[in-house]
Amino acid sequence: MKVLVIGSGGREHALVWKLSQSKQVKRIYAAPGNPGIARLAELVDISAEAVPELARFASGKGIDLTVVGPEAPMAAGIADAFEKEGLKILGPSQKAAQLEYSKVFAKNFMHKYHIPTASYETFVDCEPALQFLKSVSFPLVIKASGLAAGKGAVIVNYREEAQTVLKQMMVEKALGKSGEEVVIEEYLDGEEISLMAFCDGKSIVPMVLSQDHKKVFSGDEGPNTGGMGTYAPVDFVSDKEIERMQEKILQPTLDGLLQEGIEYKGIIYAGLMLTSAGPKVLEYNCRFGDPEAQSVLPLLETDLVEVCEAMIEGRLSRLEIEWNKSYATCVVLASAGYPGPYEKGKEIHGLEEVSENEGMIFHAGTKLVNGILVTAGGRVLGITALGETLDKSIEKAYRLVDRIHFEGMQYRNDIGRKGVLRTNA
């Protein structure tokens, strides 16, 4: 079997790594991939958003399965284009992907189908949004409706701050077209977790829960990022609570999509806030989270190719999906300045000292320059380790981090700690 993975980040490296373990897979291509992925797959110099070119490549190479990593190709309709060419692809249609690329669509969808979420209002003009701020209490959350690489949601604590954020998004176009329409919603207090699930259009099966760490600095300080690290599973959420999430969130989501005439095949990811009134959906994503994939996929025992084919062919309910009983922790190493303007081209040292038995190093923003591996992104590497307990997986991950270095390297020193504290409380 020939497999194509689309994307170039840490999530895509984790996908390639997991797919390479399948006995069915003979060859993997990655477009465009990265230097870490290049050890397992043949890199293809095609942008993840160049849909027609990707379809031509897949058709010409006789690709048997394509797995889409990032959100932008899904928003561009890659699944529709591939299916039109008779190519097997895992990823929702452009219509289904609205759950992620339009926060307004997602909020209206949740309201219509009684899926618990924060109360909200939507705006396409700045002036009415500014007027709305006079009638509400703070804090609030302002979200750009479109895709913003995990940086389109801003918590505002007072009116002047909210006015500034709205003007930046809607008038100054700080996020381009993504911020032309905004959602202003109630601030939810609680613990945030990531509930990812496999979906074949008829059935929806949750993965093990994970918890991301969005803020750039330890102690949940500083601005939001795309994610500074994750761990899985989340022990402080009981099996009974997960069943309720299935009943109140996942199944109504699938039922609502079916009522809308939308067939959804792929990954559904609900970012949840565990509030005093129960779990509420913060947002949907239509793909594996990044860096959630880097802690969840290492725990998947079932052949990922089998899971992908079951989703595409509508037979997920007949597949028993098994999970490793270990714990996984992923620590993200980022460039100086991230999530703002960051430095590039810093040589990375120490990777050769880490063996495969000790953990996984997932490349997110790296590049080879004259044979030397250097930084090329905000998030550079994801360091993942498994352990019999969450504590042990955390310790192992940070032992590996201590061996790696590049100028300006920044990371949080508390990934997973809240999981240990909450579980032991």
Question: In a nutshell, what does this entry contain?
Answer:
By secondary structure, this protein is of the alpha+beta class. Helix content is 29%, strand content 26%.
What's the structural blueprint in terms of helices and strands?
Blueprint: E1 2-7, H1 10-19, E2 27-32, E3 42-43, H2 51-61, E4 65-68, H3 71-75, H4 78-84, E5 89-90, H5 98-101, H6 103-112, E6 120-123, H7 126-132, E7 140-144, E8 153-156, H8 159-171, E9 182-186, E10 191-199, E11 204-206, E12 211-212, E13 215-217, E14 221-224, E15 229-232, H9 239-259, E16 266-275, E17 278-285, H10 292-296, H11 304-313, E18 327-334, E19 360-363, E20 366-369, E21 372-375, E22 379-387, H12 390-401, H13 417-424
Parallel strand pairs: 1-2, 1-4, 2-3, 4-5
Antiparallel strand pairs: 6-9, 7-8, 7-9, 10-11, 10-16, 12-15, 13-14, 15-18, 16-17, 18-22, 19-22, 20-21
Written description of the protein model:
The chain folds into four domains: 2-91, Rossmann fold; 125-180, Dna Ligase, domain 1 (2-Layer Sandwich), CATH 3.30.1490; 191-318, D-amino Acid Aminotransferase, Chain A, domain 1; 327-424, Phosphoribosylglycinamide synthetase, C-terminal domain (Glycinamide Ribonucleotide Synthetase, Chain A, domain 4). The chain is 29% helix and 26% strand. It has 13 helices and 22 strands. Strands 3-2-1-4-5 form a five-stranded parallel sheet, with helices on both faces. A hairpin with an 8-residue loop joins β7 and β8 (153-156). The longest helix has 21 residues, at 239-259.
